[in-house]
Amino acid sequence: MTVNEIYLDGFRNYNDVTATFCSGVNVIVGRNAQGKTNLLEAINFIATGRSFKTVSDKDLIKFDNDSAYIKTMVESSERCQKLEARIIHGKRKQFFANDVKLKKTAELSGRLTTVLFCPDDLSLIKDGASVRRKFMDNCLSQLRPGYLTALLEFNKLYENKTRILKDHFDKPALLDLLDDFNLRLAERSAKLIYYRSAFCESLTRRATEIHGEFSSGSENLAISYKTVGNLDATGKKASEILPFILEHQKEHRGAELKSGLCLTGAHKDDFEVAINEVSARKFSSQGQARTAAISLKLAERDIQYDDRGEYPVLLLDDVLSELDEKRQTFVLERIKRGQVIITCCEDTSSVPIPNCGEIIKVENGKVVSFVRNIMTNNEL
């Protein structure tokens, strides 16, 4: 899968700008705050329907503009496709595929798949559970069209149930709605847990292999999926998970009403990473945690390849400068196939990127120059 070009108008600091990419390794260079990351954000936005930098879409619109527009030309399995996004102040964002308006954001799933690796991901191991849930959600939303729909429905139901639990003291009639919300929330939870459990099985296989290579066999990485009530969801269908969720809700109903908190559901999910059978979150060194985080992101890329038979577009946002030479070398050796788009400081000599197909220089929201090599890494 490749992004052949992207056109931006009114997105972040870009107005009427086109950038083209080769099918191999592309390096975006420039000083800080010139718009390098914004290019990656736009690509990832049209793949996933959301920004990895902000929760508010209005932040994506250039200052003094009323709207933002993104257009990409994507090639997958020898088929070209035009994807567009429109973000307008005060209106819902809109997405189009080959000039046809998509009814739901979930319809973007699979049209352009990406794996993003940014400096924040280096804390994937040490941070709280919400970061690892987001990691699972980002990958599964691209792999499984039904996942994003279930996730969006779950989030809305969770917000509504939480409002009932907090407001029922002053408005007792709200409790008449609780059973219905409990059932629907449990159904969506069971579906999310099913997908996440299966994903963690694949993640374990791939990340364990990668981490073993990374550590030269000195460390064994293991991943265990954790959900509500210590349920072992391995190999279980959503229909088999649902009764357990409903029973857990029933047991915690009193505690929920008293605390005003939703205590049962997929919002409690996490996965635990262990290195040599010891919790990486609690006991790993900074170097170990970074190695494990890199293993997870590279495993995500391999999972998408296993599922689709082609590599997703790999987006590396200034992550190489955060790594020591050993980790840089390992990452660069693992990305010799598929399209890669890397942002770097202006001086790329400190990071020897092999088989670079194109160097794109960005300055103040403009593509000021590019150099394309004769051969890309996929032609070597």
Tell me what you see in this structure.
- This protein has 380 residues and is α/β, with parallel strands linked by helices.
- It folds into 2 domains: 1-113 and 312-380, 3-Layer(aba) Sandwich (Rossmann fold), CATH 3.40.50.300; 120-310, Up-down Bundle (Glutathione S-transferase Yfyf (Class Pi), Chain A, domain 2), CATH 1.20.1050.
- The protein has 9 helices and 15 strands.
- The protein has helices at 36-48, 129-143, 145-167, 178-214, 238-251, 253-259, 280-283, 286-308, 325-333; strands spanning 2-9, 17-20, 25-29, 67-76, 79-88, 94-97, 100-101, 114-117, 221-226, 270-275, 278-279, 313-317, 340-344, 356-363, 366-372.
- α3 (145-167) packs across α4.
- It starts with a strand and ends in an 8-residue tail after the last strand.
Our Rg estimate from Cα atoms comes to 22 Å
CATH fold label of the largest domain: Glutathione S-transferase Yfyf (Class Pi), Chain A, domain 2
What is the CATH class name of the largest domain? Mainly Alpha
Overall pLDDT = 91
What would the principal axes of the Cα set say about the shape?
globular
Strand % is: 15-25%
**C-alpha end-to-end distance:** 18 Å
Tally of DSSP β-strands: 15
Q: What's the CATH H-level superfamily name of the largest domain?
A: RecF/RecN/SMC, N-terminal domain
Instruction: Return the CATH architecture of the largest domain.
Output: Up-down Bundle
Q: Compute the number of structural domains.
A: 2
Q: Give the class from helix and strand content and strand pairing.
A: alpha/beta
Q: Give me the strand/helix succession.
A: EEEHEEEEEHHHEHHEEHHEHEEE
Sheet bearing the most strands, described? 6 strands, antiparallel
Helix fraction, binned, reads: 25-40%
Report the total helices.
9
Parts with pLDDT < 50 across at least 5 consecutive residues: 374-380
Report strand order across the widest sheet: 2-1-4-5-6-7
